[in-house]
Amino acid sequence: MSFTHIGLLCSGGDSPGMNCAIRAVVRTAIYNGIKVTGIKRGYAGLLRGEFMPMNLSSVGNIIQRGGTILQTSRCPEWMKKEFRAKAVDIMKHQGIEALIIIGGDGSFNGAKALWDEHHFPVVGIPGTIDNDISGTEYTIGFDTAVQTAIEAIDRIRDTAHSHARTFLVEVMGRNSSAIALKVGVCTGAENILLPHDKVNHQKLSDDIQRGMARGKDSSIIVVAEGPTAGRSYDIQHVLKDMFHLDAHVAILGHIQRGGSPTANDRFIASQMGNMAVQSLIDNKFPTVTVVRSGKVLMAPLTECIMKADHNFLEFQKLAETLSI
Description:
By secondary structure, this protein is of the alpha/beta class.
């Protein structure tokens, strides 16, 4: 099958580096004589027919920009079979013969449904700061989110030291430990609380007080947000009420999603965008661009449709050892 016209969209949460992938898709497609139509606001925009023709000028001067020029959204309607059928009809009417999706596991499940129900060619590019998609060691945006959090904590540590304070710094990671673990190790955090671990307040208090006993006057505790953002406030109250320890809370929140992508995110996203188009040219679909053993490769879509907290858990022992 030879493609002459492909669609491109971003779905789910935004992540730095998405624009790099968009740029690479568009330029690789045009290089190979393929027309590209951008679809604004993800699957919801697809259903509303929010199309924009893309050319070399469309992706000029975007490699350094965070977010996504195509914008993104979540689409509850996509869960219904009749809306997916409508989407295929809309794309066919536009002359779109295949679709590249930049997003997370939910976006890839939506793509899988297009293939399973209509055999519509799809290729995925993993974009989420949480680095929590099965089948790949890396997702676009993770490195930038980590660097943003590290820079924030370095500044917070200055204040913590100046005022002899303990800070609970909450980073993103509803189901993923990756950001918390990497940030915790890279900032010398005294403790790292992962999203689904039960908080051992006694151990947390003992660790803080042990540091104080050896002359340490400030501590940084990195907290993964878990299922509900703001869990740091509950921890703060327990430390105060039960152990008479004052701790200040800093929730980094969506600041981690924005900003100019790091060199690593730019480089990997550029490779993934290029390889996604090449995969369609080679008639290898439904597939996803993945990182395995440090290399960007293609993998079956079915291997990348689950959330997976596998990429940094091996470093728990390292974090514990270095935090004494």
